[in-house]
Amino acid sequence: MFAADGRGDAPQPPFLRRLRKTSRAVFDAVGLPTTAHEEWRHTNIAPIARTHFAAAEPADADVAGHLLGECAAAEAVCVNGYWRPRLSRMSALPPGVLLVSLREAIDGSATPVHEFLGRLAQLEDRPFVAWNTSDFADGVLLYMRRGTRLDRPVHLLFLGAAGDVPVVYHPRVLIVAEEDVEASIVETYAGNGSASHLCNAVSEIFIGAGSRVDHYRMQREPAGAFHISATGVELREGASFVSHSLSQGARISRNELEVFLRGSGASATLNGLVMAGGEQLADNHTLLSHEKPGCYSHELYKHVLDGRATGVFKGKILVHQGAQKTDSRQTSKTLLLSDSATMHSQPALEIYADDVKCTHGSTTGPVDEEAVFYLRSRGLGLEAARHLLTYAFAADITRRIRVEAVRRRIEDDLASQQGLPLDLRITDAGQHDDAAL
Amino acid sequence: MALLEIRNLHAGVKDREILKGVDLTIDTGEVHAIMGKNGSGKSTLVQVLMGRDTYQVTAGEVLYKGRNLFDLSTEERAREGIFLAFQYPVEIPGVSTSYFLKAAVNAVRKHRGLPELDAAAFLRLVKEKMKLLQMDPAFLNRAINEGFSGGEKKRNEVFQMAVMEPTLALMDETDSGLDIDALRIVAGGANSMRGPDRAILVVTHYQRLLEYIVPDRVHVMLDGRIVKSGGRELAIELEKRGYDWVEKEAAALV
Lengths: 437, 254
Known about the structure:
The complex is a heterodimer. By secondary structure, chain A is α/β, with parallel strands linked by helices. Chain A contains seven helices and 21 strands. In chain B, the strands form three sheets. Chain B has a six-stranded mixed beta sheet with strand order 6-9-10-3-11-12, sandwiched between helices. Chain B has a four-stranded antiparallel beta sheet with strand order 2-1-4-5, covered by helices on one side. In chain B, strands 7-8 form a two-stranded antiparallel sheet. In chain B, a hairpin with a 2-residue loop joins strand 11 and strand 12. The interface between A and B is medium-sized, with 31 and 35 residues.
């Protein structure tokens, strides 16, 4: 049912051959999860399991409408999981930044890829990660040397090209920031056309001491697509990571985001926005693993669910023994626009240290009637009031986006979905704290 | 024909009646105050007038400009010139105050067959009103009421009232949570709106606000009814003697 490694006979360095072999063994042994599996209880991927996906072939695609343009320092494009240099733009990168095809980097010796690849994307019990690691054709390496400061984001764009048959591809991203790096990175997952594809992405992000990485993940897949992703992040001493996960597309989507705070004083902020309607199923599983003292993490995930959509959020906070003075806050808020939409929200706290502050909260409900009344009392119609409040609910996340082009794209989508003009946004980006609460 | 005529109005929630036969007539050019203890029904009255649907009207009628008020939705009432300054204004993160206010002003203008204000004309209008309420123009780009102090929210309500230029302004406990300086500013804003084409109904627990917004008529509300009406001297008497004597008087009449 699944294509074997379609990479051809190109020679691979021994470390990769070993990694792929182990991964294939895990994938073959475990198979795709069913709802009997605790971590997939509310996420029925039967439509994926019963589809025959061919391995995607190299292709070109229309990138217009997907690129960020001049507001990005560089844009790397992969189509069907294959690096596309002619569609990419690398010119404006400062020295100290390497942005290359992952396969090229693996084959070359300029960077120690083998020290990083596969270290955060753990295979155990994770068949999709195993499948990616076994089968990825190519991907992107972004390597930033000590002291690098990027004043504009790097955009990594992964497109699926329409075909006649369903295809699977496995984008693979490796991001390494050495010490004292400042960078923002946008990963976009999208596609052209309506053919169903399965995008099974894995990203690993290593953030060195004192570095700050802002990470944007835009999932804008076509309506018929399936999107599965796993992102692993490691933070060293005093490092900070700000994640914005923005999910709009795909019939079924599942994002796993695991953040390992492995240096004291590190901080992670996870902001998430899911907008789903129709029959969409959108799942986000996050892990904040506090392994050293004095780290903090703030997490805010918001779902806007319409039609018969289903949202799943599981936020796990794991505080290891010795991770004293941990400060971790998690909030999940869901707006239900229809009686047929369903939300499953589940916090999971595991705490093995005694001097910590951990809180979580979850709310799910329709549009606040008090707020609707307030807006109507100022002359706005009922529908306009509901649309405005829906926009406002989501904009609470989007306004934290510091990359103007990303923020505009998401807010414009949101406004047009709600039938609102585009001039309602607040134009004080960056004035708000990153903090989710 | 008076601007607002309330006749024997009964309203409440589920099985509990809160308004038990309110009679009140307000004409343009007048400022009325309703005073009363917490729970007397005065906030319910203004919310019912604005169309809050958590309250059901069970009897009586309200005529606004001679029309049955209950034929109009909340937004239609707003477009017809009724404004309620909320006791607890709602915070709406994510939407700028300027967008919201422009949408509100233009909804009213459209209803009245007037052309929509463009950005420049709108800005001129709000800047003038902001000066009146001594507000920082940066506030226009802030989210609606978000992170505002209680006093800022109230000031924002009166600012919006000034921009909307209602025919009937209902002010629900606008004085609560205000320090004396803010109270002066807010009252100044309200006073600037007094005029022959407009009526203002102030609901308050304390007489303090009425030192600044001097009413033409004062009404005492008790257990869902207006039990006593008088001139501004009634407010002063209430401040001195409390509400007990009114209660006793009302009880004696039954």
